[in-house]
Amino acid sequence: MGAKVIMLASGKGGTGKSTVSVMLGGALAARGERVLLVELDSGLRSVDLISGVYGKTVYDIEDVLSGRCSAEKAVVESPLYSDLYVISAPYSGGTVRPSALAAFISTVGEAFEYILLDTAAGMGAPFISALSVAQLALIVVTPDPITVRDGRIVADTIAEKGRANLRLILNKVPTTLDGTGIANLDECIDTVSARLIGVIPQSDDIMRAAVNGSRIPAKSKAAKAFNAVAARLCGRETPLVIK
Ligand SMILES: Nc1ncnc2c1ncn2[C@@H]1O[C@H](COP(=O)(O)OP(=O)(O)OP(=O)(O)O)[C@@H](O)[C@H]1O
Ligand SMILES: [Mg+2]
């Protein structure tokens, strides 16, 4: 069958694509899925820190795509989330061409159930390459008007140019908004015009994990929210809002 390829995208930077990539990848892996996370955001790496592979990677995705090393050599298992495998972006420069990415995915696709592609904000080269291979695009937005409007532009581009299905993840949702006062969130969903698959709360646990290079506690609301998205991706109906 081959892996399901999922890209993460946003219009604005800093909405949480890399954080969601790692934590959703970890949640899928905890369900017994083998997950490969490929970071395509050259020069602005962060997946290595969040997934705990910082300092453990020797090769990056460009080394693999240019044939300088095999995929096995570049893939590193996250010490924080077992069964989550990571390939980092280059420290600087380098463009991942769509044809090279497609060839790579057909080579490694049988070894994984999910391949997550963490792109850079906007619609530059990482976005274009990911879009050429993705079956599903997760648009990550935070509940503020500018981010949401830019999310819509990205969503429209995906609908026009790609063959990926679209889903929306609302991230950094203040806890006062994630319960009954949901009107504001409805507006976000309407504006982006994509089906909602996850609501991730604004979370001190996520911030602490990023600073310390540690896992988020399994009991945290944020961890439960990522588990719910993972369950929905695996076809299970779960509540969107974690109380
Ligand atoms: N739900 C959340 N609660 C609190 N902090 C968060 C949450 N999600 C992400 N963050 C923080 O927001 C910052 C940006 O997150 P991240 O790097 O994942 O965004 P990004 O969309 O990948 O950014 P870029 O566009 O630069 O690639 C980080 O400091 C991260 O720890
Ligand atoms: Mg990022």
What does this structure look like?
α1 packs across α10 and α5 crosses α6 (125-133). The protein is an alpha/beta fold and 243 residues long. It has a single domain (4-233), classed as P-loop containing nucleotide triphosphate hydrolases (Rossmann fold, 3-Layer(aba) Sandwich). Helix content is 40%, strand content 18%. The protein starts with a strand and ends in a 10-residue tail after the last helix. The protein has an eight-stranded mixed beta sheet with strand order 3-4-2-5-1-6-7-8, with helices on both faces. The protein has ten helices and eight strands. The structure holds adenosine-5'-triphosphate and magnesium ion.
Provide tags for this entry.
243 residues; binds adenosine-5'-triphosphate; 10 helices; binds magnesium ion; Rossmann fold; alpha/beta; 8-stranded mixed beta sheet
CATH homologous superfamily title? P-loop containing nucleotide triphosphate hydrolases
Major sheet description = 8 strands, mixed
Mean pLDDT: 90
In total, the number of strands is: 8
- Beta-strand portion reads 15-25%
Structural class: alpha/beta
* Number of separate domains: 1
Bound molecules: adenosine-5'-triphosphate, magnesium ion
Low-confidence stretches: none
* Rg computed from alpha carbons, rounded to a whole number of angstroms: 17 Å
Write down the secondary-structure element order.
EHEHHHEEHEHEHEHEHH
Named at the architecture level, the CATH assignment is: 3-Layer(aba) Sandwich
CATH topology: Rossmann fold
Side-by-side strand order of the widest sheet: 3-4-2-5-1-6-7-8
Shape: globular
Percent helix among the residues? 25-40%
Highest CATH level, the class: Alpha Beta
Distance between the termini: 36 Å
Number of helices: 10
